[in-house]
What we know:
- The chain is an alpha+beta fold.
- 59% of the residues lie in helices and 13% in strands.
- The protein is built from 13 helices and 7 strands.
- The chain has a 7-stranded mixed beta sheet with strand order 2-4-3-1-5-6-7.
- Probably a homodimer.
Amino acid sequence: MESAMEYLAQLGQTILTLARQFTFKDAIDVAIVTLLLYGVIKLVRETRAGQLVKGIILLVALFLISYQFDLMMLNAILRAFLSSGIVIVVILFQPEIRKALEQVGHSKVAQSLASAMATKDKEAGRAATRKAIDGVVDATQILQQLRMGALIVFERQTKLGEIVATGTVVEAAPSSQLIANIFFNKAPLHDGAMIIREGQIYAAGCILPLTSNVNVSAELGTRHRAAMGMSENSDAVVVIVSEETGQISLAMEGKFTRNYNRLTLRQALEEALLGASEEASGSKRILDKLGFGDRTSRKGG
C-alpha cells in the first residue's frame, strides 16, 4: 500500500515538474501535431486508407507479439517488412497523400502567398479571363440550342499539364464560334474536354478523371462524372452542357450545381474566376430583379 502511495506521489511530482517546464512554444508544438493527427484521421476515415491503417496496426501488433514470445521466423519477416515502413506507407497511401498536399496547395494561405509572389500583369489577366467567360457563356447558349454536349475546364492555381497531355494543344482566342465548332458532334475534338488557361483555349479533346464518389446520382452520364472528378482533383471550374437535355451545369470544389442560364452562368463564373467584383455585384442585382437569384445554388445529384 505504501509503495503504491509513493508511486502516485512520484507520478504527481513528475507531472507538476513537466507542467512547470511547459512553455508557449511547447503549446504550439502540441497544437500543430494535434491538427496534423486530426487531418490524417479525417483523410483516411471511411476510405480504403482506413482499412490499410487497420492492416498496418495488425502487423505492428504481430511484430510485438513475435518479439515478446521469441517467434524468430515471424519476427524476422515482419522486421524486414517494417524496416521499409516509410517507403511502404508512401506507396500504399499515394492517392491520399497527393490529395492532402493538393488541399494544402488550394488553401487560402497558399493562394495568398502565390498571389503575392506573382509578377504577371493581373489586370491584363483579368481582362483575358473576362473575355474567356464571355466566349464560353455565348458558346453554351449555341450548344444548348443545338443539343450538343460540352465539357469546358477553367484552369486556376492547379496546373493541368497531365490532362493537357491527353488532348491536342490549340492555343487560340476563346471566341464563342470556335468553342461551338470544337464541340460540334462531327468535329474530331468534340469528344473530350476543353482546357481554358490564362484566358485562352489552350487544349481540346482532353480526357478527365472520373469521380470516385459512389454517392453521385446514377442519372449523371460520363461527361458529368468526368467534370465532378476534375473538380475533386483540382481547383478547376468545369462547365458542362448536357447533350441529352441541353442543361448547363457547373462542377467546382467537388460540388455540382445545375440549371444555369446566360445570366446565372456568367455571374457564377465571374465570382469563381474573378472574385467579388463590381460587375459580379451588378449582375447579381439584375438577377435578383429578374427572379433568378436562387437558381445558382441548386445542388445536382
